[in-house]
Amino acid sequence: MNINDAKLETKCLHAGYMPSKGEPCALPIYQSTTFKYDTTDEMGQLFDLKAEGYFYTRLQNPTNDAVAAKIASLEGGVAALLTSSGQAANFYAVFNICEAGDHVVAASTIYGGTFNLLAVTLQKLGIECTFVDTDSSPEEIAAAFRPNTKVLFAETIANPALVVLDIEKYAKVAHEHGVPLIVDNTFATPVNCRPFEWGADIVTHSTTKYMDGHAIQVGGAIVDSGNFDWDAYGHKYHGLTEPDESYHGIIYTKQFGKKAYITKATSQLMRDLGSIPSPMNCFLLNIGLETLPLRVERHCSNAQKTAEFLASHPKVSRVIYPGLPGDRYHELAKKYLPNGSCGVISFELKGGRDAAVRFMDSLDMAKIATHVAASKTMVLHPASHTHRQMNDEQLVEAGVSPGMIRLSVGIEHIDDILADLSKALENA
């Protein structure tokens, strides 16, 4: 059978690596920096991108490539690149098609680290970013575009504001302006949403989160749909459509077709910046991917029950979770996330910041940790942790109030989760 035609649950187990007779059933760890060849010409062909093969793990590695192929299959893309972190993935995804003098438009309710990447770090490289309210009308989003805009960026489910993106709306605006839509799909995972099916062109992930699921490796992924026509806008994306003198004048779109974007990211950015994941980390990620559908289902089930519990508690003033009928993004979630959104809940206590701190410090099972989407329940205070670099105005723009709590519901038994929360709420 063609594994790419299989159901997602089957792809999680088999895509990317199908052993032949006598080969190990588990994906091998190719823990080697280098790979041997018999002739000088064989190695030269690899450096010229005229032949496929492995010669240095900074560019390609069999373990890493197998996991990348699995993630590409899960998202329905043509190719993927693994990076050493989710932040590296977002940086590479944008920088692969942007350079000094270019401009990016991004939804404001994105992860704080990504906000800072686009607002501060890329600006130091000469790339400017304009942020728009995620719920803006198409006309308002379009008004942020400039002649030098190269990318529209957003998240399927914003971290931690839990704003659900209207992917079709954003894709339409992006394509009307001749730019690709990049969507960070970390929270939804391809189990609950595949943005390419709604018009997105490139997807990124922090594989550290649900894909890993056990908080044992840090990684990222970029997946290309292969659908964006770079040649149609060659004057904008000359790095893909004009000769690359660092590789003897090859033109990526001509030589690699639908895999041009990922090939350029690998051969240029990974060559020069080197944000690779280790083969061991990719092996661990692959183990997490095998159970991704099972875990996501449990995360969503537990989170739904937890959100309903919190919504009915007298000390809770507000619960943000797309699965709740009263949530402002419930209808969008029904459209884009019909099988569940994620295991992350944001909520506020009536006592504000002080009550939130008392609540967090009273938890026994749930861990205070700067992490989400692990098998164990974790909690943090975004304004003090992930978004602490933002001022109050930026916090509001990002959908984060000073007293907001981000709760990442794990896969423990729901009774034990609710018991832990109940006890802590008594002290809030």
From TrEMBL:
SUPFAM superfamilies in the cross-refs: PLP-dependent transferases
The residue stretches assigned to a coiled coil in this entry are: none
The cofactors it requires, by name, are: pyridoxal 5'-phosphate
Q: Which UniProt keywords apply?
A: Pyridoxal phosphate, Transferase
One Gene Ontology CC term in the entry? cytoplasm
Q: Which domain of life is it from?
A: Bacteria
Modified residues annotated as N6-(pyridoxal phosphate)lysine in this record = K209
User: What's a single GO MF annotation on this record?
Assistant: cysteine synthase activity
Q: Name one GO biological process term.
A: L-homocysteine biosynthetic process
Tell me the protein family, please.
Answer: Belongs to the trans-sulfuration enzymes family.
Q: What is this protein called?
A: O-acetylhomoserine aminocarboxypropyltransferase/cysteine synthase
Taxonomic placement: Bacteria, Bacillati, Bacillota, Clostridia, Lachnospirales
